[in-house]
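Q: My collaborator sent me two sequences in one message, no labels, and asked for predicted structures for both. Can we handle them in order? The first one she listed is below.
A: Yes, handling them in the order given. First sequence, followed by its structure tokens:
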Amino acid sequence: MENWITYIAECAFCLALLYLPFWGLLRKDTFFQFNRYALLAITALSFILPLISIPEITTPLAENEILSIQLDDINVIVNGKVGSENISWQMFLSIVYLSGVVACLLYKMYDLIRLARFIPRGCLWTHQENGIHIHCHVHDIVPFSWMNHIVISEKDYEENGHNILLHEQAHIACCHSWDVLWLSLVEVLQWFNPFIYLLANDIKEIHEYEADRYVLQHNGNTQAYQMLILKKAVGNSLIPLANSFSQSHVRKRIKMMSRKQSSSGKRCKWLYLLPVSAAYIGAFAQPEYIYITAPKAAEPNTTQQQQPTKSEETALQPTICMPASGKATIAYSNTAPKRLPKEIARIE
């Protein structure tokens, strides 16, 4: 129990450690796709780095020292040093964490079900083009996309259908919905970590920057497109998981369209991940101890002195007889396969 609680805490700390330099150095750069992949890599590294262990070969230990270490561990448990108080705290933290996971998971599943039911509801007509399903709704809703589905109102389709469909097609072509699903899973596992929500917000901003750039590449009228964004900024998406045309990053999106393209050399700033990851592994990775037992000292070869040979076993064995006269005599017998004591050998 203690191990996996520690692992979850280390994952949260690792994600914060890797994300903070991006927040301070790279948020305003214009290489959107590269930043997007790097942020997704940070979320994956936050789960991988805490699992890395560093092999460490210890100084040779004798068998009795290893036995004493094991006995000390047993005494800790028997004597109650890991007592009921620590166990109760671990149980409390486990219950709180699992309760948050279940609540967050149910909320995400509710959004998915609501999204799946909302797409066909109130649909006037559906059109399929290049594998993309376009659903035209009668209600005045904010356009959005999910996987290969685009939902748009009849009014928007007639007035600004070309630019809106280009924007949503960019979300589908870049597979932004899969990013949202992955981030939703990370949010479920790290619901207590505020940095995962900041990171998810940055990725959603990057999604909009990518889609806006795609529209401007196919329709060069930047000013008209910016006016469309301002016009559609009034509404908010009813489905948080969907890629909505009307996001809350309108001001940042307009500023990013006018920003000068960042030089490709600035991508080297992402190399900060290497020293930060190495520092985390060196400071917090769990060491994997490899114990080497010291070889036993060679014992004196007393086998020949202690084990009688076959010829000795069959030889006549002397015995001492002490009669009443007090004079010792030596008798020989071949029934006792015993080795001669040193005293008897001297008497003989």
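Q: And the one she listed second?
A: Here it is, processed independently of the first:
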Amino acid sequence: LFPVFWAFPISEMVAELGSILPSEGGAYVWAREGLGEFWGWQVGFWGTFSTWLQQAMYVVLVAGYMEKFIPLSEAGSFGIKLLMILIFTVINLLGIREVSQVSTVLSVAVILGFAMVAAVGFANWHYNPMEPFMPPESGVIDSLGGSICIAVWMYCGYETMANVAGEIEDPQVIPKGLIIAMPLIALSYFLPTLAGIASVGQWESWATDGADAVGYMDVLTAYLSPACGFCFMIIAILSQCSIFNAYIASGSRGFFVMADDHLFPRFMVRLSKKRKVPAVSIIIMAFFTVLLCRWDFTTLVMATTPLMLYLYIALAIATRRLRKIYPVEERKARGLFVIPGGNAGLNFMTFLPVAISIIALYVNGTEYFISGFLTLFISLIGYLVCKWTYG
């Protein structure tokens, strides 16, 4: 249900906002234009900082996948994480074209790998993937809270594409790309998971790390060969590397644009002389990832998700506000993307993310409240300091 009621509305909002304001900085620029400088800064901070936090998740996932086949000590695991950070930091320092070329190759491999898991899994259907509908030891609130937390993370990040709009020849490809990407993302989660649980069962053992964890590659190992399972492990690692690679590109542009507006430390706006990329921001981001990659996956998700929820609530409000600033008729005359369905379509696409975000913040209780409140306090103080110092 999440692709329909969460991911699709968010991708539609991002497509509309990215079409009317295809500017470097993405969400920060949209919120600044629609809600003013203060809320623009808050949204820019939430979006960029959450991207920086998410970077570490993909590094942790890669190490977790490798532990399935290679026994790793703590030092060995950390060494692999450092190598991954180093490789993709260098690629990003080369430029956005190199980032896109690497991401395209990795994405094709990932789609083919997960398509194979879905095909093999459905061909060997032995279990009911919907039983039990809810974990027997958990209540409705606990189950809903945990699943929303993971699902929000699964279907987030669409807005980060707009962070590099200033470096794209035709920024209008962003809304066109979303039309293709969102269904592919949803299917790549839903079909392999459904097929995997239907073919190998053991739903309670599915996890992202650990030697005894069950995952997608077990489908290929069980019904094809261990070699196929090993190949899929490589693809699983490449999938995390692909996202990590693209997130460095988008995450390094957020604070860069805010610094360019004299609302963040000025050293973040420096470009490399030859490649003209925000090298300082990329290097600081890599160092930050090194520090955080020692945390576990669940902790990182819990730290990131409240930020994303605040961001999407603000984007929904900004979307409605910008409809008044930039009338629909003028946009259509310029051939820009507009959420279809008139006011009814706008209400549907903006109300659902806000409602789900509020529910997610409520059902996850104290941890979300504390981390969310702390983030709001930090972003408020951060704006006041940056405005006084640089503004």
